[in-house]
Each structure stands twice: as C-alpha cells, then as structure tokens.
Specification:
alpha/beta, Pyruvate-ferredoxin Oxidoreductase, domain 3, Rossmann fold
Amino acid sequence: MDYVIKIGGEAGQGIQTIGDTLARVFSRRGCHVFTDQDYESRVRGGHNFYRIRFSDKPVFCARESVDILIALDKESIKRYEKLLSLNGLIIYDSEKMKESFNSERFIDIPFSRLAQEHGGSSIMANSAAIGAVHGMLNMELDAINTIFNDAFSKKGEQTVQANISTAKAGYDFAADACVLCSFDLPQKTEPLMMISTTEALAAGAIASGCGFYAAYPMTPSTGIMNYLASKESSCGIIVEQAEDEIAAINMALGASYAGLRAMTGTSGGGFALMVEGLSLAGMTETPVVICLGQRPGPATGLPTRTEQAELMFSLFAGHGEFPRVIFAPRDPEQAFYLINKAFDLTEKYQIPVFMLFDQYLSDAQWTFSGFDLSKIGYKDYRLRTEQLKSLEKYSRYSFTDTGISPMAVPGASGHLVVVDSDEHNEAGHIIEDAETRNAMVNKRLHRKMPLIRQEVSAPLIYGSSDAELVIVGWGSTYGPLKEAVDALSGKINAALVHFQEVFPLPADERSAYMDVIRKARVSICVENNATSQFAFLLRAEKGISFTYHINRFDGRPFTIDSVLEDINGLI
C-alpha cells in the first residue's frame, strides 16, 4: 500500500485544514506518512496544494502520481488530472465549482450542501471532504471524531457534533457514489508520532537545555519560535520576539554570556542582518546556535518556496577568520538529535554552530515511532560558583593546548569576567601588538579546528558496497535520493553518500566516503541550487569532482519521480 492524496485550491479554502487532519488520522492509524505543501505568498487566492503520501512501509519523500485528488477549484483539475494513477479519482463539488465533469474518474460530492444540511453552515464543507475521503477508503471515523473533539471543544459540544455529523454525511455520500474505489488499507496498528522539522528543532533545543531564544519572524524559521513560545511556561524557556534580526542575535549572545544556552533563528534575508553579530560571537568566543532556514533569493526571492543556496553564505559569512560548524539535518528525527550535538559543540568549543534547513523541511511532516531521550546528552562546560571558588586566578581567554579557554558565568564568584570585541589578551583587555594577535588567532582557529573536525560524523553511505553509480547529496535531498537508489538497485549497483554534518568535513580516517565516490564509474551530485555549492566545497576541501550535476532552483523540492527522470536521462 502506497497512496497519495492531493488537496488543491486557493489560499483561504482550508486546504491545510483538510491535509493536516487527514495526515493525523493516518498517523494515528499506524500508517507511515509524509506530507508536503506548495503555497504562494498571499493570504487569499492563487493556487496551493497539500500532498499526503501514506503507506504501510516507511516513506521518505513526495511522489508525483495522485490516487485521490480533492479539487477545491478548477485549476486543481487542470493541473493535476494528468497525474492521476491507474485507479486515481477526483472528488469535487460541482455546485460550488459551477461545472460538471462527465467521467467515471470524477465523483461529484456536494461538500457545501452537506455541510449546510448536516452541520448548519457551509463553513464546515471541509469536514464533508474529510469524511468523503474516509468513505472512499472504507476507513472508520473514530480517529476523526477524536480530532474534531480536540479541535473544536473550546467552541462547544454543538460545534463538535456538527462537524462530526457533516463528516459522516460526506462519508456516506462518497461510500455510496464511489463504485470504482478499490483502495486497500491494512489493519490498524500502533499510532505513530507525526512532526515537522521546525517542531523537532524546537523540541530538541528544549531537550538540550536551551534557556533563551530570540528571533524576528521570517519564513521558514517562524515555526521554531511559535513552538518554543508555546512551551515557555512549562519548560522554563525565555522566548523574545525582537524588533529585528540584529537585535535577535545580540540578545542571544547576551543571554549566552550571562550563562544560558541560547539560540536564534532566521532565513537568508534576516541572517544578512545578523552577520556582524556572527563575527562578534567569533571574536568573543560566545556560544550560540543559529537555525538558518533557506528559501530562494536574492532579496525577498520566493518567500514560501525552497532552496539550498545558503551553504556558502553560512560558511563564509562574517568578517575575519574564526571556526564554525554547519549541520543540515535530513529529516525531523535527525534534526532532534543533531541540534543536541549542535548545543554541545557550541558550548564545548565556544563557537557559532549553524542548523541549516529549508522551506521544504520546514513544511513537510514525517511519522516516527518516537524519539529516544536516552540519546540526548547534556554537559555544562561553564564555570559556575563552586568551580570558580577553587580558582586562584581567572582569565577568560587563557591560552591552552586545545584553544578552549575557561568560560565563567558573570556574577557567579569574586572573579572578574571581561569580554572584548576588539582583539584582546588572556584577561580580555584590548591589545594592539602583533605577538598577542598571532597567538589569539592560533588559539581561536588553528588549535580548535582539528579537534572540531574529529567530532564530525561521517556521511551516510547507503546502497551497494561496490557501486558503479554514486549519488551525493546533503540535507533535505535525502528522501528522494534514498528512494532513487532503491528504485535503481535492480538495474545498476547504486549507492547514496549523504551528508548531514556539512562543515567541517569529517577527518579522512573517519570515513570511506571518498573512496566510494572516486571508485564509481559515474558520480552525480544533486542539489537544490544553481551553482552546485556542496560540490564546490567537496572539490575545494577534498579534490573530489563529479561526472554530472543535477540542480533544481525553481523553488520546488525534488521528488522521487523528478530525481529518477534526471538520473536516467544522464546514465
């Protein structure tokens, strides 16, 4: 079983409501779910869609073919009718659309009229559509009743029952009308957790001891702030909506200096404003985690679309030279664990650490059995009251073999804590001499970087151990690339080398990935950008070149279908 439901229509028609509700129903039924969205940067109008892929086996990306299309406007039929699978069907409301389609593939269901008759208001038409899908799938309504109760209980029992009655009416109508329905769902199993990457990043930050988050709202990072703000009281975290991104990163640095684990989040345009603060973190060696959500640029670009075009920006941003770490999780599960590592490294090495994601990852949702909290670590690297009492002398920037200096919390003891954004000596006071300058750069950069590199995990190598074809990707491309390797495995020995810990690249002795790429007859680097930024990094750092490059930069993510078409076209 592997089905796709697509809901298409204009902004404001409740597309996300239908999609989110159905996705939650399937996840609570024990189905493996992947969802993604495509929407314009406008409140009403335009054309949007919400896509749900659900299966009895784990799924990792979107698929182009559609099994059930819920068409809320004519444009949806025009765009997606050609994508119907062999047994695919379209449900629509001819009364609302003011047009009928005489084809056995179309099922006319009066969503608005059913809502008016059974719920008392046409505003519940979406509940009729949700019920209709249940009827087509011959799926029980108990999960939807629970979801409606959770969603509408604050509006009163009458509203809850009205939506339930409307969904039942949609169910009965579709079950009777859909004579061609042949969908086969497995028995119910244990419910699965469904979560997005922004939610996972936020939850992982809380689990990692994050005490302060400052940001200015900007798609696609806003979901992190929304989630953390909802947990302020219960989790003891301070969330501040700053007046702009400059203030946000400086607030985070201030909170970090004061002794809290701190984080900020933004997108490319906002990060452009944060860059001076990034260099401040580099000079003062102040820990901070930066969640950077990528979307197409330059300038405002496509605000609600996706891209992987800010790898070089995050790698080279900031004036001067200082170490940094860049992570790019492949899915929500890895985001949860990887942000824990980000907090550990930023505190341990006193450097900025980036969590690089994108609009696609932000909007998409996956199902998992749950997160293992035993994998979450916490070590406080700061010197607090008891440790400081035993020190005769404290210097914030003491020279050490590792380059890591003691980091005290101000006000925790009688020692003076000095931090300076100018070049400084061990005590933190401004200097001008060349000898101290050389020593400080070596301490901050050259002593730390070899140690940081040893902390970086090797990329995932998936597929044939003797691959003729190697596909390389990073971050959000994992799902379609993994499924592409699975699809190609019967025709050619293929493997995927996928990076989630992007910079610095792992030490050579820690991974066999270079041999896998170099031994392949054909190597292809797949990226959501125009200039193959990760391939550039691999060539600069490791001397690796690729046979081919596949680049997509139209603001849309790769799907399994588009990746296979591109790869087959090359080989």
